[in-house]
Design brief:
This is EF-hand domain-containing protein. With about 375 residues, the chain is of the alpha+beta class. About 60% of the residues lie in helices and about 10% in strands. It has a four-stranded antiparallel β-sheet.
Length: about 375
């Protein structure tokens, strides 16, 4: 169900040494008026270089950059897509004007941004894992190692590939659940996998043969575990399963549903007669998504396909205009159809990202005061 994370990794790791980031610290901060006020006072003073009691566009730039870092964006100037997001964050603070921002405005907008981040982490908690080779060694010694690797070998196709090529592809298919950080990450490949390949096997350039694949892979995997012991890798891991339960809960609560739909309708435009184009159903659905346990549009490709199939089935993209009540009925019908699709075929997604620097150094603006947890 939504909110119930991949138990094989999430529960196991959080009980061991994984740090779970679920937004609760942020909500605790924003929810404590006194502590949050002190937090804002400190940050505002830190940013207000000319001490005029307001923040200029230039003084806001470090705050915007730190928010981007906390959201996992690359540094400003790295890409047009991320720069657009930075511009939108700045626009939130300035309300689209080129005027200075007061402490009250800064406090309100920062609160909205922090609550949005906390809501995202609540829906999709992040577990910070320290991969140090122990789980990989445990997997190598387990009865499931050989059959799983034979199965992986049967799925790999590398025309004229060498033993080395097949071993690399095999490592790319292993997961954090088996004690392997993502080998698709260039740092992991160059600092963990490649050194293990160079030091632990002399047969790598030979053509692939099933009788040599497993013994050589085992040998290299043991070397990878040793390298991980010497240089542990920090991985941010998320898992989620969308099975329609979030929608079912929302549809069962009529007052909450009506309130959510009314809020969603405020995000769409109307024509001169007050009617709404059905092309705005996707926009409204995105506004409802957090309450229905759904990801934002574009975040999960499998979910985008489910929604597109439902929209096509219900003629939601025909561009016709409808009255507000009919629009709400259509939106409710779309939610119900998505729920039925997910109940029959749940969508499970997971992601692993190597953390190349300590999380605490990524953003200075959003470091929570140490006394806020008290």
């Amino acid at each position: 169900m939504e909110g119930k994370r991949g138990e094989s990794v999430m529960r196991k790791k959080s009980e061991q040494e994984g740090e779970v980031m679920d937004g609760s610290d942020i909500m605790e901060l924003v929810g404590d008026e006194k502590v949050y006020g002190e937090f804002v006072d400190h940050k505002f003073q830190e940013l207000d270089r000319d001490r005029d009691g307001k923040l200029s566009l230039k003084e806001l730039q470090p705050a915007v950059a730190d928010i981007g870092a906390a959201l996992g964006l690359p540094a400003p100037g790295s890409s047009p897509d991320s720069d657009h997001i930075y511009s939108e964050v700045l626009r939130e603070f300035t309300h689209g004007k080129h005027e200075k921002v007061s402490k009250t405005e800064f406090k309100e907008v920062l609160s909205d941004i922090l609550i949005g981040m906390a809501d995202g982490l609540k829906r999709d908690p992040i577990v910070i894992l320290r991969i140090d080779g122990e789980d990989l060694l445990e997997f190598i010694k387990s009865p499931s190692f050989e059959p799983e690797l034979v199965s992986i070998l049967s799925e790999i196709e590398v025309p004229n590939g060498s033993l080395r090529d097949y071993i690399i592809k095999a490592f790319e298919r292993l997961s954090v659940d088996q004690g392997m950080p993502p080998a698709s990450d260039s740092w992991v490949m160059s600092n963990i996998v490649e050194p293990a390949l160079q030091s632990c096997s002399t047969l790598l350039e030979q053509p692939i043969r099933q009788d040599t694949f497993l013994p050589q892979l085992t040998k290299v995997a043991e070397c990878v575990a040793q390298h991980l012991k010497e240089r542990p890798v920090i991985v941010a891991h998320t898992e989620n399963t969308f099975d329609g339960s979030g929608i079912k809960r929302l549809l069962s609560k009529k007052f909450e549903l009506e309130k959510t739909l009314d809020a969603a309708l405020k995000t769409v435009a109307r024509d001169h007669s007050g009617k709404i184009s059905k092309e705005y159903l996707r926009v409204a659905l995105d506004a409802v998504a957090p309450s229905a346990g759904l990801p934002p549009f574009g975040a999960v490709a499998q979910m985008d396909k489910v929604i597109a199939d439902v929209a096509k089935m219900l003629d939601a993209d025909d561009g016709k205009t409808v009255k507000e009540e009919e629009f709400k009925m259509l939106l409710t019908e779309i939610l119900g159809s998505i729920m039925l699709q997910l109940e029959g075929n749940p969508v499970s997604v997971s992601a692993n990202s190597v953390v190349h620097e300590p999380l605490t150094s990524a953003s200075t603006l959003l470091q929570l005061p140490s006394h806020s947890a008290a």
